[in-house]
Amino acid sequence: MKKVLALVALLTVGAVQAEELKFGDLNYFLKEGQKNLVFNFADSSEDTRSSGTQKVQVAGYLADLAFGYAVTDRLNAFVRMAYFADVRTELGNNHFNTNGLQNPQLGANYRFLNQDEVGFNLDFGAILGIQVQDRKVGNLTPKKNGNNLDLNTSSYSDPRSFLELNARAGKKWNEANEVYFLAGMVYNKASDYRLMSNSRSTDLSSSYNYKLGAFYQYRPVMEFMMTLGAQATRYGSYEEKDSSGPNTSHKSHIDTQFIFNAKYRLTESFIVKLFFNQDKRSDFNLVDDTGAKSTFDRRSNFTQGVGLDYLF
């Protein structure tokens, strides 16, 4: 409780001097009738070690496009699509590729409190991810390509539909400095995917993920911004049922991501950015019905990319 009160005090201090929010700020919220188009293109490399001996590398390109629209000054909605391009999963001399559109996402954000009124911003959001096509995971031997990454080797992969609810609190306290805090819960709906190794369907149970994040942005001049952030996600345990073998339990684990963005405002409505994400990922275990355990450890990820942000 003391920590919560301290956070509220930090956000509300200097409410009278609250700065005007501008395009590019972490706390900026679309005004009624405004539209926003965001495109990101990233080069990602993920590594993990399977059962303590085999190193698996997943490397390739990720692209996502989001379109947002402000229904009112306090309510906006968006749609987002992502695409995996030439993502190569490699173990030794064997590999397969993953290409394809991922599950589309629909979302909305509501600004419940505004810093001009109470000294800080408080937003509530919801995101719905919808599985719209069969998800297929490739295979190393024999080589068969797929359209979805393996859940065990990539944190970018999950074939299931999901619903995320989140809350965000932040404040810009002068023209150069602002903070932003995030808390969220994700419900992953039970679903299935297809293994290309034998074309059989595998069922996944439902699960819950939880996330916490904190971000700081420094804007020394109107045209240039730098963002530092960290986000921790706890992936909940779930069951995987395969008709031709024992059921497998995926144990919960926590992954942490450290984020750096450098943004430059070319015009009043157009921003370009560079971003770099470094993940610190914990080990996790798979345990089947017979009691046999597999461990995935030495997990890491580095992602770098460019982005465009257009307001109109």
Strand neighbour order, sheet with most strands: 1-2-3-5-6-8-9-12-13-16-17-19
What is the CA-based Rg, rounded?
Answer: 21 Å
User: How far is it from the N-terminal to the C-terminal residue, by CA?
Assistant: 42 Å
In what range is the share of β-strand residues? over 45%
Topology, number of strands: 19
Query: How is the main sheet built?
Result: 12 strands, antiparallel, barrel
Report low-confidence residues grouped into runs of 5 or more.
1-6, 12-16
The helix fraction, in percent, is under 10%
Write down the overall mean pLDDT: 90
Shape: elongated
Question: Helical stretch count?
Answer: 2
How are helices and strands ordered from N to C? HEEEEEHEEEEEEEEEEEEEE
Structural class determined from secondary elements? mainly beta
Describe this structure in words.
It is a single chain. The protein is mostly beta strands. It contains two helices and 19 strands. A hairpin with a 4-residue loop joins strand 10 and strand 11. The N terminus is likely disordered.
Concise structural overview:
The protein is mostly beta strands.
Write the layout of secondary structure elements.
Elements: H1 2-12, E1 35-50, E2 54-70, E3 75-91, E4 94-101, E5 105-113, H2 115-118, E6 121-129, E7 136-137, E8 162-172, E9 177-188, E10 191-195, E11 200-204, E12 207-221, E13 224-235, E14 238-242, E15 248-250, E16 253-267, E17 270-281, E18 284-288, E19 293-311
Parallel strand pairs: 7-10
Antiparallel strand pairs: 1-2, 1-19, 2-3, 3-4, 3-5, 5-6, 6-8, 8-9, 9-12, 10-11, 11-14, 12-13, 13-16, 14-15, 15-18, 16-17, 17-19, 18-19
